[in-house]
């Protein structure tokens, strides 16, 4: 008998996505409406791909690093 592994979910709810990102539900909806975090509609339900949440964090950290460098270089 083989042991089945439980895979991570491909999609999460808005509540779970906001918990994963450690942001409020309101901020999640704001970022979704601006197009910064893609979402998927399945009927009336809105779901988020885990990979999109990772991409959002990566983009935000890259943006923060870029703004820090430009502030350091601009303040002479």
Q: Strand pairing plus helix content: what structural class?
A: alpha+beta
CATH architecture: Orthogonal Bundle
Fraction of residues in helix: 55-70%
Largest beta-sheet characterization:
3 strands, antiparallel
Radius of gyration: 17 Å
User: Per the principal axes of the C-alpha atoms, what is the gross shape?
Assistant: globular
Sequence of secondary-structure elements = EHHEEH
N-C termini distance: 68 Å
**Number of E-state strands:** 3
Q: Count of helices? A: 3
Could you characterize the architecture of this molecule?
Strand 2 (40-42) and strand 3 form a beta hairpin. The termini are far apart. It is built from 3 helices and 3 strands; from the N terminus they run E-H-H-E-E-H. It has helices at 14-21, 25-33, 50-74, and strands spanning 11-13, 40-42, 45-49. The chain has one domain (11-74): Multidrug-efflux Transporter Regulator, Chain: A, Domain 2. With 76 residues, the protein is of the alpha+beta class.
Which characteristics define this entry?
single chain; 76 residues; alpha+beta; Multidrug-efflux Transporter Regulator, Chain: A, Domain 2; three-stranded antiparallel beta sheet; 3 helices; 55% helix
